[in-house]
Amino acid sequence: MATFLFLIPPGAKSQDEKARIIRDRFSWIAFFVPFIWLLWHRAFLAAALVFAIEALGSVLSEHPVFGLAGLGICLATNLLVALEGPTMIVAGLTRAGWRVDAAISANDRATAEEIYYMDITTGEAETRRTVSLPAAETSPRRHAPMLGLVGFKEGR
Predict the structure, then answer these.
(1) Which residue ranges run through the membrane (predicted)?
(2) Which residues pair with residue 21 across a beta bridge?
(3) Does 154 fall in a domain?
(4) pTM summary value
């Protein structure tokens, strides 16, 4: 089962027909050509950064001593983009004012769309929402320091 994120544009209502659907999964295309994949998804700053890191890795891979390090840098960059690429796209859209309306687990995209838009006809739009955990600052429980370290916002 895959998770599909439904993002709606700024000012749109829930279940808008202009919702953008992003499948949160590993992308083989992003693994093999991360620079082009990021450009295709309009993540220009990330594409420039990946291009610079890949160029550094390819220069290092030609060096007799640092050859494996250069290949490791290129492989790690490709793997990072393949795993976190959809998350980068969602973060970019969120910065642009879009908001995540739903996160639906389904076998394929058609089933996820059916579940998402089904609420329009049944009127159960408020029953289907993602669960969000409370933020640390809103929690009534104080967090103790971990492993003997000073806790967050505790000070000395």
Answers:
(1) 28-53, 65-83
(2) 6
(3) no
(4) 0.66
**87 is a domain residue:** yes
How far is it, in rounded angstroms, from Cα 136 to Cα 130? 18
Q: Any idea what the Cα angle at residue 146 is, between residues 144 and 149, rounded to 5°?
A: 100
pLDDT in tens, the chain (156 residues): 888 999 999 888 888 888 888 988 898 999 999 999 999 988 888 899 999 999 999 999 998 888 899 999 999 999 999 999 888 888 888 888 999 888 888 888 998 888 888 865 555 544 444 444 445 555 555 555 555 555 555 544
Cα–Cα distance, 105 to 12 (Å, whole number): 23
User: Which two three-digit tokens encode residue 86?
Assistant: 């959809």
Q: How many independent structural domains does the chain possess?
A: 1
Give me the domain span that covers residue 118.
Answer: 2-138
Exposed, middle or buried by CB within 10 Å (0-12, 13-18, 19+), for 142?
exposed
104 DSSP β-pair partners = 4
39 belongs to a structural domain: yes
- Please check whether residue 47 is in contact with residue 39, taking contact to mean a CB–CB distance below 8 angstroms: yes
Evaluate whether residue 98 is within a structural domain: yes
